[in-house]
Amino acid sequence: MAEKKGNKLKETTTNKIKQVVQKILKANQVVLFTGAGISTESGIPDYRSQGGIWDKFQPIFFDNFMSKKKARIQYWEQRLDMEKGLKHAKPNKGHKSIARLYEMGFLTSVITQNIDGLHQASGIPSDKIIELHGNTRRVRCMSCKRLISWEETMVMIKAGARAPECNCGGYYKPDTISFGQAMPEKETRKAAVLSAKSDVFIVVGSTLLVQPAALMPEYARNAGAFLVIINLSSTPYDCLSHVLIRDKAGKILEKITQGVEKNLT
Q1: Most Cβ neighbours (<10 Å): which of 135, 189, 212, 220?
Q2: What's the CA gap between 30 and 34, in Å, rounded?
Q3: How far apart are the C-alpha atoms of 52 and 40, rounded to whole Å?
Q4: What positions carry a catalytic annotation?
């Protein structure tokens, strides 16, 4: 009985993948929305699950970072600890499958909640990626807004700066959104417009709980897009999706990409 049920589930997933492939082939605008669930397969822990980043660290709120040197030092200590995993992370088959869809001309844009830069590393041009929560490989001065690389920051840290500061006197901080920090208006607005213009909107590896990022699939669905959700756990938008697949991101994205490729030969 268990084997029969397993075969039926496999058949259902296969049919869902075929349905997604056909929608992609006919679409004019395909948008991918990615969350931490795609990067966990590259060895990067997510934020909210047991054993995740906030299970290990107490978040430093933006106001505390800006007002207290002790908080800035603690923030940078946490960031250096995170680097142990980030520096070895490579794009997995999920990232590579998305990049392949772009290479074949079937991907308009990637909207991501992730800050790891793995979509860029997979080969997708930066101007095709909207990073709603920033990118931890960049570091920004909170005063003059100057951007420097992570490598430049490491030189300062190795020279003894426990909380690096800019020549202007401002505080350097990874170019990511902290708790209590305003979302980037330009990126959020652009993501909303792209979502509403999409024919196919595919959510991968996101619980869709963090606002306003989680509104993007709603904008897409309300505008008539075909909504696909690929995630291991439930989301508030499951009931609105046209296709819902409970499985690992890399495995399903690879099969979708292979299905698209087969239709081109």
Answers
A1: 220
A2: 13
A3: 10
A4: 133
Write out the chain's pLDDT in tens, 265 residues.
Answer: 444 455 555 569 999 999 999 999 999 999 999 999 999 999 887 655 545 555 566 889 999 999 999 999 999 999 998 888 788 899 999 999 999 999 999 999 999 999 999 999 999 999 999 999 999 999 999 999 999 999 999 999 999 999 999 999 999 999 999 989 999 999 999 999 999 999 999 999 999 998 888 999 999 999 999 999 999 999 999 999 999 999 999 999 999 999 999 988 7
Predicted structure pTM score: 0.90
d(CA 211, CA 213): 5
d(CA 99, CA 93): 10
CA 214 to chain centre: 12
% helix, strand, coil for the chain, step of 5: 50, 15, 35
List the beta bridge partners of residue 32. Answer: 110, 202
- What does each C-alpha distance from 177 to 96, 140, 224, 260 come to in angstroms? 26, 11, 30, 35
Which domains does the chain carry?
Answer: 17-44+91-133+184-265 (3.40.50.1220), 53-88+136-176 (3.30.1600.10)
* Whether 101 contacts 264, CB under 8 Å: no
- Spatial distance between the Cα atoms of 14 and 7, rounded to a whole number of angstroms: 10
